[in-house]
C-alpha cells in the first residue's frame, strides 16, 4: 500500500503544472526592444488575416470606467478606462487575457498567457501597457503600408499622448515621410511631443499646428489618437490622396471623425466589422446611413494584398481605417514577446 501511495503521489506531482513565469515591465521592455518593427508588423498581419478568415475566437470586450458604466474614483478628466480582452487562434498553442488601463496620461496593464493544451497559465507579463501600445501602433502602420500615398506631404497627428509616439515609431517603418504637424486640445502636449521628435534619431521634422484644421490640410496621413466623444476632424479638411488612421474611438460614444468622412470615403477599412459597429467610428457612420457591409476588414485587405478588386478596381484616394483593437493582436504580440524572452537564460519563477 505504501508503494502504491507513493506512486499515486508521484503521478499527482507530475500532473501539477509548474508555476507561470512572471516578467517585469523592464524585462518585457528589454525583450521588445530587441524585436524589429517589421517582425511586429508581420506577426500582426498574420493575426488579422487569421481573424478575418474566421480562425480566431474572440469573446466580447469588457470596458470599465466609460459610459454606460460609472467613472473610476480617481478619474477627474473623464478619460479613464480599462479594457479586458481575450482571444485564441484555433489550432494555436496559447490563449491570452489582457487588461489595459489608463487615463490622465497614465497607462498600465498586464497580459496573462495560458496553454491551450494544458489550460494552465504559462506567463504573467507585467508590461505596464507596453504590449498594447505596440500592437495598437502596428495596426495603424499596417493600414498605412497598404493605403498611404507613396510620398505623403506630411503626417497630421491629432492628439499628442503616449499612443501618438508609438504610432509614429511604427509609421517610420512603412513611410518615408518625416514631416509632422501636431495638434492637441492641450497645447503643452503638442509642444512637448514636437520637442521630442524634432531633430531626433528618426529624422522627424515636427511643428505644432495652430488648429486641427491646419494640421490636417494637405496631409497624406491623418492620425487621430484622442479620447474624444465628438468629431474633431472635418471631412472638408481631407484632401486626396490621404489615409485617415482613426485609433481613438474604442468604446460606445467615442468619436474623432465626422460621419461624413466614412460616408464619402472611397474605402472604409476596419479591424473588426463587429466591433467597429458598436465601438468605433463606424457606429456614427451607420447611424448616418452608412452600410457596414461596405466596410472591409484589415485582414481581408492584407490577404488580397491591398484594397481588393471587387467593385472598386482603382486605387482608393480617401481611405479611413477604423481601429478598435482586436484581441488577436494581444495574442500575437504576447507570442512574440515570450519567444524573445525564451532566448534569454532561464531563471526560476518568481512564484
Please write out the topology.
Elements: H1 2-15, E1 21-23, H2 25-33, H3 37-52, E2 56-57, E3 62-64, E4 81-89, E5 94-103, E6 106-115, E7 121-125, H4 130-147, E8 155-158, H5 162-171, E9 179-183, H6 187-197, E10 205-208, H7 212-216, E11 221-224, E12 229-233, E13 242-246, E14 255-257, H8 259-263, E15 267-270, H9 273-279, H10 282-287, E16 296-297, H11 298-304, E17 318-322, H12 327-341
Parallel strand pairs: 1-7, 8-9, 8-11, 9-10, 11-13, 12-14, 13-17, 15-16, 15-17
Antiparallel strand pairs: 2-4, 3-4, 4-5, 5-6, 6-7
Helix pairs in contact: 2-12, 3-4, 3-11, 3-12, 4-5, 4-12
Provide an overview of this structure.
The protein has 351 residues and is of the alpha/beta class. The protein contains 12 helices and 17 strands. It has an 8-stranded parallel sheet. Helix 2 (25-33) crosses helix 12, helix 3 packs across helix 11 (298-304) and helix 3 (37-52) packs across helix 12. It is globular. The model has no long low-confidence stretch (mean pLDDT 92).
Q: What features would you highlight for this structure?
A:
17 strands; 35% helix; 351 residues; seven-stranded mixed β-sheet; 24% strand; alpha/beta
Concise structural overview:
The chain is an alpha/beta fold. Helices cover 35% and strands 24% of the residues. The strands form three sheets. An eight-stranded parallel beta sheet has the order 10-9-8-11-13-17-15-16.
Amino acid at each position: 500500500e505504501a508503494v502504491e501511495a507513493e506512486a499515486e503521489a508521484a503521478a499527482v506531482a507530475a500532473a501539477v503544472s509548474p508555476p507561470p513565469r512572471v516578467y517585469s515591465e523592464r524585462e518585457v521592455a528589454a525583450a521588445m526592444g530587441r524585436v524589429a518593427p517589421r517582425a511586429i508588423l508581420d506577426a500582426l498581419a498574420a493575426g488579422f488575416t487569421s481573424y478575418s478568415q474566421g480562425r480566431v475566437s474572440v469573446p466580447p470586450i469588457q470596458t470599465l470606467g466609460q459610459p454606460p458604466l460609472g467613472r473610476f474614483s480617481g478619474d477627474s478628466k473623464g478619460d479613464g478606462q480599462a479594457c479586458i480582452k481575450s482571444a485564441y487562434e484555433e489550432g494555436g498553442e496559447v490563449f491570452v487575457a489582457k487588461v489595459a488601463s489608463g487615463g490622465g496620461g497614465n497607462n498600465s496593464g498586464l497580459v496573462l498567457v495560458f496553454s491551450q493544451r494544458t489550460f494552465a497559465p504559462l506567463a504573467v507579463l507585467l508590461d505596464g501597457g507596453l504590449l498594447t501600445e505596440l500592437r495598437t501602433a502596428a495596426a495603424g502602420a499596417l493600414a498605412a503600408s497598404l493605403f498611404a500615398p507613396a510620398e505623403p506631404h506630411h503626417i497630421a497627428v491629432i492628439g499628442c499622448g503616449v499612443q501618438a509616439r508609438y504610432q509614429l515609431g511604427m509609421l517610420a517603418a512603412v513611410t518615408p515621410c518625416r514631416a509632422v504637424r501636431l495638434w492637441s486640445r492641450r497645447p503643452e502636449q503638442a509642444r512637448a511631443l514636437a520637442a521630442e521628435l524634432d531633430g531626433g534619431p528618426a529624422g522627424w521634422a515636427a511643428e505644432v499646428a495652430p488648429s486641427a484644421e491646419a494640421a490636417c490640410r494637405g496631409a497624406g496621413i491623418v492620425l487621430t489618437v484622442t479620447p474624444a466623444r465628438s468629431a474633431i476632424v472635418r471631412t472638408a479638411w481631407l484632401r486626396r490622396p490621404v489615409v485617415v488612421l482613426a485609433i481613438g474611438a474604442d468604446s460606445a460614444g467615442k468619436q474623432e471623425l465626422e460621419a461624413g468622412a466614412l460616408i464619402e470615403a472611397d474605402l472604409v477599412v476596419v479591424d473588426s466589422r463587429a466591433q467597429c459597429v458598436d465601438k468605433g467610428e463606424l457606429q456614427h457612420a451607420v447611424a448616418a446611413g452608412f452600410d457596414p457591409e461596405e466596410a472591409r476588414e484589415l485582414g481581408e485587405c492584407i490577404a488580397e494584398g491591398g484594397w481588393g478588386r471587387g467593385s472598386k478596381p482603382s486605387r482608393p484616394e480617401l481611405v479611413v481605417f477604423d481601429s478598435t483593437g482586436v484581441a488577436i493582436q494581444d495574442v500575437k504580440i504576447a507570442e512574440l514577446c515570450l519567444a524573445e524572452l525564451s532566448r534569454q537564460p532561464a531563471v526560476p519563477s518568481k512564484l
